[in-house]
Amino acid sequence: MKKYILSLIALAVICTSCNDFEDINNDPFSVDINKAEPEYFLNNSILGAQQDPNIAERTFVLYWKTAARQHLTTGIAGGSYDDSWTVEYWKGISEWLNNANATIEIANEKKAIGQGKAHYDNLIQVARIWRAYLMSEFSDNFGPQPIQAFKGVNPGFNSEKEVYYFILDELKDAVAKLDVNQPVPSNPNAYDMVYGFKWGQWVKYANSMRMRVAMRISEVDPAKAKTEFEAAANSNMFISTSDDNFKVKEDTGWNPLSGVMSREWNSQILSATLNNMYIGLGGINSTDQLPAAQHTAVKNADYIGIRYDEQFSTMTNDPSAGYWLDGLPNKIDPRAYKTFYIPGDFNNPIYSLYPTYTNQASTNSGDLTFANGSKLTINTVNTWNTTTIGSWGVKGQRNGLRGVIGCMPALGKQYREGKNFRIFFASWETYFLMAEAALKGWAVPMSDDAAYNKGIQDSFAYNGVSQFYTQYITSTDYNRDGTSVAYTHITEPGTFHTMNYKDPSTGNMVSVDIKYPVNTIYKNGSVKNDKLTKIITQKYIANMPWLPLESWSDQRRLGLPFFENPAVETPLVNLPNLNSGNYMTNSIQNFPQRLRYPSTFRNTDQDGYTKAVQLLGGQDAVLTPLWWAKH
């Protein structure tokens, strides 16, 4: 078995208690099968997949969150790539898969020698379900992988279609073989960090995962997707409440359970993508959401801000580009203020726990320099802004606010201090998947509008803003992208909306027509407010910040939600399609599609690498679409 990927793990030295399962790989070539317990390996797999800070910073934050536009970073969103980051992730996910495989091997071997326990059969199925998730994570990042890597033979690579078919078959078969009435193991060292051996919840997770994977392939293999999705959905055993959510408790410090977003130097400032979705969406006034002391900072609904042409790039199709809002938006999705803190709002309980990096919002936060050499100091307290990613050239040099932590909204403390639960699958995703399936005409147990509203309701409950739900779901207000919330409101917003901005040199208010962006990837830009756009917009917001890989996958699969092009004041060498003549037009060539295979794979098995790239159907490059993605 090649060691570069998914090598069959030998039985490992077994720890003496469930709290030591993270040490089971110290010696992968020695084992006392009499002491081995398969659940140690399963938990070690789940533990590892939480991603220690070394992997999480690079993969979860700098790859997934950046590609998904969950924060303000160019990185891979500008087509760049770091092989050393991918080497670490590749090594990690190979180990996690190996441990999932070892769970099955150990359980079967102990059964064969007469040491089987009553819960082993169920544990094998749970390990298959978890392994199916890991395989989907692998292929959603890279593409082709070997599906027989755990069979004890040197595997060949399989196409993405074969991989996803295999995952769907595994989930179906594992559910069929799980005995939900099997008692919880009596062994005090037996441990299930996710569901505590509540077998029915593993069944629900498997069926929700089956819906996710089926929907992943729906654009390229609709018949298979429909069959698999309907079977899973009509089981009526899926993640339907927050109690069913697949989540793992985080920890502080530096270990695999450390919060995936906890590194203080990863500022995770609000992205332009999210901001354009948030502002105006749902019609909820900021004054209804914020303390009275901040009400004076709330601006009129038709005010877009101060126009700074010389310091903010406008070479992008970001509809907010070029403006600085010297206050707070009139209306905004209520989850925005619960997810991102307002600059200078030091008493807010979600204000970042890193004061060294976030106390910079004050009356002299930063300077804007004009072409004539003059400077203007900006007060960023109680303001709500972000900027477009990309290359800003001279304008970037003149902007002392761009990307300065504390001067722009950034991710709240509750996601950064390692005291939360990392969510892998939540009930809101089940409902948004169901809504999309019903919209396609598939036979599922809920209508599209009911599932859509239920997804929003669960997301609102998670974010603690349920008091706004009823008003929100009936709103026909458009956000900056031209999308509203009310599901039956599919009236298009028109080409533009009229706003007012302040001229910084005169202080005068000027009327301007702000164009709604044209998403030329989705339906050739013909719609902005159809039902699918609503579903994916709400799914995207709900998945913030725990599920960036899913958000990235939806954008690759559908071209939804709208992602603005990176700014190109100067060329972006890793996005050669994007230039000063076409920055108003979206193209899949302007957005990352996958991770390249790491050099450790390329250098150790040229034949395997060649086969993988052949199955990929294009160059081993960031911009090569995966099989199921929009082409």
Molecular structure report:
With 631 residues, this protein is α+β, with helices and mostly antiparallel strands. Helices cover 35% and strands 7% of the residues. It is built from 18 helices and twelve strands. The protein has helices at 38-48, 53-67, 83-112, 120-141, 160-177, 199-216, 222-233, 272-278, 336-339, 355-358, 393-398, 427-439, 448-463, 469-473, 531-542, 548-558, 599-604, 606-616, and strands at residues 246-249, 303-307, 323-324, 340-341, 366-369, 375-378, 390-391, 410-411, 421-425, 496-502, 509-515, 567-568. The strands form five sheets. A four-stranded mixed beta sheet has the order 3-2-10-11, with no helix packed on it. A two-stranded antiparallel sheet has the order 1-9. Helix 1 runs antiparallel to helix 3. The longest helix is centred in the N-terminal third of the chain and has 30 residues, at 83-112. The radius of gyration is 25 Å and the shape is globular.
Main traits of this protein?
631 residues, alpha+beta, 4-stranded mixed β-sheet, 18 helices, globular, disordered N terminus
